[in-house]
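Second attempt. The first submission of Glycosyltransferase 2-like domain-containing protein had a stray character pasted in from the spreadsheet, which I only caught after the job came back as garbage. Lesson logged: always re-copy from the clean sequence file. Corrected sequence (344 aa) follows.
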Amino acid sequence: MPTGNSTMDIKVSIIIPTYNRGRLLRQCLDAVLMQQEAPPFEVVVVNDGSTDETAEVIKEYANVRLISQTNAGPAAARNNGAAQARGEIVVFTDDDCIPEPDWLKQLVAPFGRPEVAGAKGAYYCDQREPIARFVQLEYEEKYKELERHEYIDFVDTYSAAFRRNLFLAADGYDTAFTTASVEDQEFSFRLANAGHKMVFVPEARVWHRHTTTLGSYCRKKYKIGFWKVLVLAKNPNKASGDSHTPITLKIQILLAAAFLPLSALALLIPSASLVLFALVFTFFASSVPLTLRCLRADPLVGLFAPLFIVCRAGSLAWGLARGTLKRISGDPRFRVGDRPPQAE
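This time the job returned cleanly.
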């Protein structure tokens, strides 16, 4: 349970930004408040200008600190919570996540090592929808990638922890990202580029409801690709790779981006169709590892995996292309150092 009145006792501040998701927030808070064998902690909810029952839900919890702000997006909400936090370590989760009882204990354990600046946990789900099950297997592929690294450069906000002094010194999340997007990637890259060490803690698990339709999945991937342009503009060294993204996904995005231009060229120059065939062959060859993983873990999802992989690569490539065009055209949202007024 959270520490009572003594500020001196608090070691960890759990910060949850929320906007118009009162029902989901209740489930999250119930789980957060039941953490076991955890260091003394406080729970801080930052209400980002909600207009639903969120404020009333928070009032039901006597042990939860409420910070209210005008709607400014989750990045600003997390920064506000961290600025007012009383713990030495700030921990973030999202209002639609349900942490396991030992989540906090596991997530903060690495901070016993003085060189550790940040830590990241893992997502899990138990949904029946094929696309949600694919999303989970996609995450698990990325977790395998993270486990190859002693230190990582990619900490997602659904299960994240940082030393508060370092978080504040680095100016927190970039509020140029005005909606939930890739602001956590950008902050992680910035910390890693400054020489700070972060670790992956797969035992720090939170449960989550992943997207359930192919359309919403594609829209989410498009949005990631669109804002990734700004992330890479701010951290250009990460264009070559990071600790979270499998090499196969990078290949697939490049091939997806080349598909339409090559198809048009093949209509004009028939011999170019050989290059197009090689591109398609290479794409599906690169999808074999994830498809086999899906088939072994969930045969039904494995049957649909090639389709999902094509949609993933195409949506990311389209988002990257549109974001790049916006940046080239001088869109103020993509000026490094500026804060765009509106998200895509």
